[in-house]
Amino acid sequence: MLTATRYPVVTADEAAAMINHGDTIGFSGFTPAGAAKEIPTAIARRAKVEHEAGREFKIGVITGASTGDSLDGELARANAVLFRTPYQSNKYLRSAINHGETRFFDMHLSMLPEATRYGSLGKISFAVIEASAVSEGGEITLSTSVGASNTFCNVADRIFVELNEYHSSELKGLHDIYEPKDPPHRREIPVYRCNDRIGSTTLKVDPKKIIGIVKTNRPDEVGGFKETDAITQKIGENVSSFLANEIERGRIPKSFLPIQSGVGNIANAVLGALGKNPSIPPFEMYSEVIQDSVIDLMRSGKLTFGSATSLTLTPAMLEAVYNDLPFFKERILLRPQEISNHPEVVRRLGIISINTAIEVDIWGNVNSTHVMGQNLMNGIGGSGDFTRNAYISIFTCPSTAKGGAISTIVPLVAHLDHSEHSVQVIVTDQGVADLRCKDPVERAREIVDKCSHPDYRDQLSAYFENAKNGHTPQTLGSAFAMHQAFMEKKDMRGVAW
Amino acid sequence: MLTATRYPVVTADEAAAMINHGDTIGFSGFTPAGAAKEIPTAIARRAKVEHEAGREFKIGVITGASTGDSLDGELARANAVLFRTPYQSNKYLRSAINHGETRFFDMHLSMLPEATRYGSLGKISFAVIEASAVSEGGEITLSTSVGASNTFCNVADRIFVELNEYHSSELKGLHDIYEPKDPPHRREIPVYRCNDRIGSTTLKVDPKKIIGIVKTNRPDEVGGFKETDAITQKIGENVSSFLANEIERGRIPKSFLPIQSGVGNIANAVLGALGKNPSIPPFEMYSEVIQDSVIDLMRSGKLTFGSATSLTLTPAMLEAVYNDLPFFKERILLRPQEISNHPEVVRRLGIISINTAIEVDIWGNVNSTHVMGQNLMNGIGGSGDFTRNAYISIFTCPSTAKGGAISTIVPLVAHLDHSEHSVQVIVTDQGVADLRCKDPVERAREIVDKCSHPDYRDQLSAYFENAKNGHTPQTLGSAFAMHQAFMEKKDMRGVAW
Questions:
Q1: CA B462 to chain centre
Q2: Were both Cys, which of A264, A344, A417, B126 would link to A368 (CB 3.0–4.6 Å)?
Q3: Are B343 and A476 inside 8 Å of each other by CB?
């Protein structure tokens, strides 16, 4: 490992001691991949001590997206979070947010870096960045994610580096660091193909800004996903058949287009199904996250390149990648989230976006963030960045949840993150609803007939088929009746209008 | 006027006779500016004759955005519209849509051209395009708008040109026609400044595709706007003060950034206020529409350049521009709507977007399209194209409507077009709510305190201040109670929760 000697080596607790109540910190991490681990845990320890002594101690926490338990979990349990943005997925932090104990505001992930530079997030006092190497000249080789680390290092005057020996010492070349200038001086983002390299292999900072290096040796806290089950497998097959048919009809080029795919079981199933479908040619990804299933597809040759901002792999899979690094360095680039999710590139490349919904309504609106319209699940993430500019935008979900007591197809989403104007295709285990060029009533029929569970079809049709109120025959008095039924008696079935 | 002689000159009725029931036609027009006038009116005449003879006769109508009464009005009154997309603003067509008699599906305006090329809109049988000149070689000089005319001419095999002598014969040079290639061959849209010219002055088509020229001499059907009143003037001043303060705080560059401004009275008032504010330097617009107030600002020197897709001027103002054309040709470019509204350019230039809302909710979501969630007003237009990628996104509305019986600030918008993730600033006559970096409850307080009418403040605060349900304390059972009160007793006041 290339470890420069000019920087002070400090303990995590020494670093945490330099941080003050009220400071805002930009932490590395996009998913648990490459997230800062030691210093946030030490800050949590310090917060507990301060709180026990009767002193206030909370910090503003900005990251790339979600992180690991050593960051969001530790800080949440220590009640040390003044505010948090953007996406998170930690159960302790989520609980604090939903109980009104922690301020959380959500942002499109591509916009976080520029908002940080433009100043609306206030002063960033420190950047805390995990790295696999640091040179004397201030060249940081990041680890398994880029996220917004480049921006945090640019705007902060003081940088702590967590130098994590767990990662391969050969990662240089995996990253492509490019940060656009701000208006009115911004130029094009010169990515024309998924594998275009446009920046530098390292994150270059003024070495005087690196005020401490914390040495560590810890894996990313990436959990495993559940195995694909019959429902998710069916969703995957439905997506794959739909896309194969679009190629057949000449509405997607025969050479196919880059795929963006969200994170989780459904995304795994979708990628698996694309991999198995002989009508889908070998393809590329331009996405946020590379997860285990992507690695399998790369080995098989079905996936020829993956551009993302994080390598979110289970420890065993990451080890396998590190053992075969030359193969994967030819096939993977990690970029800043501002670039992996940039609307300019998404629109230009013609990305097919595939994201997961919590619920979808009969008009084609999608709820990605709030259960029953109230409790935050994780956040909008990059789903808006990709959906809004996709060549074809797809949302997936199982047709029911909670053993059938919840229909994910509802008269009106209880929280709306993606509007009917931007959502083009809905896929459930039941089938595929193609909403393009359909008016609201046609969309409602398509979604109910193709995507809703048979237990709910009559009920959903009854909601709109006899309504005679306008272009969108919404009945405001009963639009949430199914949600209310669930909240009252834990079952959406049997609602009459 | 440069009029080629190689093309057959036909009457509008002869052209209409060549169109069949079920054909989809792409018409020029973005607002009434540059809209086809003679042929759609003739199609409406033909439809009436066919209907009287007991035969079906309806056509699919695709345009740039809204058009004039000769197009949308005539076709709607003749019941000749099979489907219509995108935006419209004609009262007869709106009524047919809201009574379920005409299919209308809405699209982001920047996406219409690529959707047309990608094939999801089906075959476009004819392009019907207003022009100010046509050369022997198939070079069409458009009139007062570009809209999607270039795309319609590219994809259709047969083109009718309405050669309108009303327009100046010197318009060549006003337009900048550029159509991107489709993925995977698309390159950057090379607009780096508002006045960058990237395409050709004329729309070049295969001359064999021009199957008929209809000669006419008719003005655009642009109506006047109401004069600015005290309410809209206050909104304009609030926007202007907010932006001046952002410059002062260093969050907008001192040289300012390009403005996108919607259409109508509030937009006029905003531009007027920006023009008068000495803290706002001379600026440029990168917008959809140039309306009368823009011309005044150009003459005064406060507006140095305007890029748009239409020149939507009242006849007197258009005449004045035509009389001083060299001055204005140096200061105006009309581009295809795919370019005027392109997310790549909007994000790159750092546009400040200012659009009008029908209603806004306390969480920062915006309804731009549906009154009471049911009846279509006009459509989303370009508001999503600009809002989603703006440097700062602003929505304006008066704090009340219908003499105070409607609060435009509500607990939950009855139709959601722009989500809390993309809406940054709300401005009413009451004040300015800056939503950036605020969590849902903070946003609710900011919007109610700064933007809602005093008659509604206590009522709105009571909705969320005592609710204890999650990150977004929405109460689904009463979220639309104010809308229901209006529908039942024509007044939103006095709702208790």
A1: 36
A2: A417
A3: no
Q: Is B135 exposed, middle or buried (0-12, 13-18, 19+ CB in 10 A)?
A: middle
Q: Helix H segments across B309-439? A: 315-323, 325-329, 337-340, 343-349, 383-387
Across the interface, which of B115, B255, B421 has its CB nearest the CB of A184?
A: B255
Instruction: Say how many CB pairs under 8 Å bridge A and B.
Output: 221
CB atoms within 10 A of CB A265: 20
Instruction: Give me A322's structure tokens.
Output: 């590190």
Catalytic residue among A38, A246, A288, A359: A288
**C-alpha pair distances (Å), A496 with each of A126, B231, B384, B486, B487:** 56, 44, 35, 24, 22
Side chain identity, residue A384: G
Task: Tell me the domain boundaries of chain A.
Answer: 12-216, 230-290+351-489
Asked whether the beta carbons of residue A384 and residue B388 sit closer than 8 angstroms, the reply is yes
CA angle A73, A74, A80 (to 5 degrees): 105
For chain A, the residue count is: 497
- Report ipTM for this prediction: 0.97
Chain A residues closer than 8 Å to B479 by CB: 373, 480
**Active centre residues of B (catalytic):** 288
Please give the residue that has the higher pLDDT: either A89 or A263.
A89
- CA-to-CA separations, A389 to A343, A349, A384, B389, in angstroms, rounded: 6, 10, 8, 11
Q: Are B168 and B219 in contact (CB under 8 A)?
A: no
Helix (H/G/I), strand (E/B), else coil: A101: coil
pLDDT value at A2 more than 70: no
Could you give the count of Cα atoms lying within 13 Å of A467 in the half-sphere of its Cβ?
24
Is A358 flagged in the annotation as binding?
Answer: yes
Interior CA angle at B328 toward B326 and B332, to 5°? 130
Nearest chain A alpha carbon to B118: A251
Alpha carbons within 13 angstroms on the beta-carbon side of residue B297 total 29
Neighbours of B312 (CB within 10 A): 27
Q: Which secondary-structure segment (H or E) carries A39?
A: helix A38-52
A121-142 core/surface letters (b: 16 or more CB in 10 A; e: else)? beebbbbbbbbbbbbeebbbbb
Q: Is A348's CB within 8 Å of B344's CB?
A: yes
A177-202: average pLDDT: 98
Q: How far is CA A291 from each of CA A130, A238, A321, B39, rounded to the nearest angstrom?
A: 19, 21, 12, 56
Q: Across the interface, do B343 and A348 touch by the CB < 8 Å criterion?
A: no
Taken as a whole, chain B contains a residue count of 497
Query: Looking at the predicted structure, is the pLDDT value of residue A186 above 70?
Result: yes
Q: Do A253 and B349 touch (CB under 8 A)?
A: no
Kind and range of the H or E element at B491?
A: none
The predicted structure's pLDDT at residue A224: 76
Which of A190, A419, A477 is closest, CB to CB, to B417? A419
pLDDT of residue A3: 54
Residue with tokens 């046509």: B134
A12-216 homologous superfamily: Glutaconate Coenzyme A-transferase (3.40.1080.10)
Is B358 annotated in a binding site? The answer is yes
Chain A residues with CB-CB distance to B193 below 8 A: 184
Q: A230-290+351-489: what fold?
A: Glutaconate Coenzyme A-transferase (3.40.1080)
Minimum-distance CB partner of B375 among A100, A182, A470: A470
Common-topology check for domains B12-216 and B230-489: yes
Q: Is A288 tagged catalytic?
A: yes
Average pLDDT in chain A: 96
In chain A, residues with a C-beta closer than 8 Å to the C-beta of B181 are none
- Yes or no, beta carbons of B484 and A477 under 8 Å apart: yes
Phi, psi of A456 (to 5 degrees): -110, -5
* Residue with the two structure tokens 């519209």: B81
List, for chain B, all residue ranges whose pLDDT scores fall below the cut of 70.
1-4
What does the DSSP assignment read for A456-474? HHHHHHHHHHT--SSSS--
Q: What is B230-489's CATH topology? A: Glutaconate Coenzyme A-transferase (3.40.1080)
